[in-house]
Structure to design on (291 residues):
């Protein structure tokens, strides 16, 4: 048999895909090709190298090169595979939610440093549920109340809570910021309000990478002029829910630390700004000092 009649091997498919993605200028062509082929074959990345010479069934080859084509148009890898790892947990994602970012792990890690195992937590703007579900997973008695104004995002968050075994302790509410939570008896009883709300300044929007600008939901990114509109509305609403000494954690862009800290008045709030692994301001930690 002429070898041209045989299907492509895993090694050939990876090499072709890397080349195609490199020509399209995507950021990490080799890694992206591996992650996409893993999702199609069910092999992990090491498995692709172990089975380098294995021939792909025609249907898998076609599916893989369709994903590579879409990746070449900047579609995020996580939307193509339907999965994203966050805090070591496997989250289902899709175009109705922001792809959870590694920077956001700083917020979760900060919360885990200080919260008791049975904490009461609010996650405002929960998206995929990355923060809410991680905190419920790592704090075995915690109860999390999460909100989002996108019903589609809440469906994804509910699915993640159920898939990751914390659906009984995560409650999801549709609406604006903290408004859906009034009337639940949470007044003055909450240990932590976590917020990774949209903080991209509207003026920065046109300069975002295509991968973000063309594919991720604008309501998950657009923080109005200067980027702090949502936090400006959240801060005055937070004290109603927090215990004395409770925390408000807000993820920010690297140039927003001072401006956001200035919105948190002394002595009501004790404020620090934490940096991410890249050494950039990433998290405002505000302790509610009054009851
Ligand atoms: C930056 S995404 C963060 C998602 C998730 N918390 C994470 O860290 O991956 C912001 C989320 O806030 C939601 N959102 C935007 N404005 C909101 C509002 N006024 N009230 C509630 N949620 C809002 C968006 O729908 C989106 O899901």
């Amino acid at each position: 048999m002429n070898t041209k009649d045989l299907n492509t091997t895993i090694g050939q498919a990876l090499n072709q895909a890397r080349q195609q993605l490199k020509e399209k200028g995507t950021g990490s062509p080799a890694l992206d090709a591996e992650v996409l082929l893993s999702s199609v074959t069910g092999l992990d990345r090491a498995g692709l190298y172990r089975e380098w010479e294995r021939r792909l069934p025609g249907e898998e080859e076609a599916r893989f090169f369709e994903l590579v084509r879409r990746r070449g148009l900047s579609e995020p890898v996580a939307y193509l595979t339907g999965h994203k790892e966050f805090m070591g947990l496997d989250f289902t994602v899709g175009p109705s939610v922001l792809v959870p970012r590694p920077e956001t792990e700083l917020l979760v890690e900060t919360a885990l440093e200080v919260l008791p195992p049975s904490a009461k937590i609010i996650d405002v703007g929960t998206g995929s549920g990355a923060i809410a579900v991680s905190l419920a997973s790592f704090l075995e008695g915690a109860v999390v109340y999460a909100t989002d104004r996108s019903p589609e995002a809440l469906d994804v968050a509910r699915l993640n809570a159920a898939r990751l075994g914390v659906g009984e302790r995560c409650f999801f509410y549709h609406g604006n910021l903290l408004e859906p939570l009034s009337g639940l008896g949470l007044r003055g009883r909450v240990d932590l309000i976590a917020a990774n709300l949209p903080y991209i300044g509207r003026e920065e929007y046109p300069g975002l990478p295509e991968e973000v600008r063309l594919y991720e939901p604008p309501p998950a990114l657009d923080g109005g002029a200067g980027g702090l509109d949502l936090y400006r509305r959240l801060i005055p609403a937070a004290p109603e829910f927090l215990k004395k000494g409770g925390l408000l954690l807000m993820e920010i862009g690297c140039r927003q630390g001072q401006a956001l800290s200035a919105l948190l008045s002394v002595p009501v709030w004790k404020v620090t700004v934490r940096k991410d692994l890249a050494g950039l301001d990433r998290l405002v930690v505000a302790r509610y000092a009054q009851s």
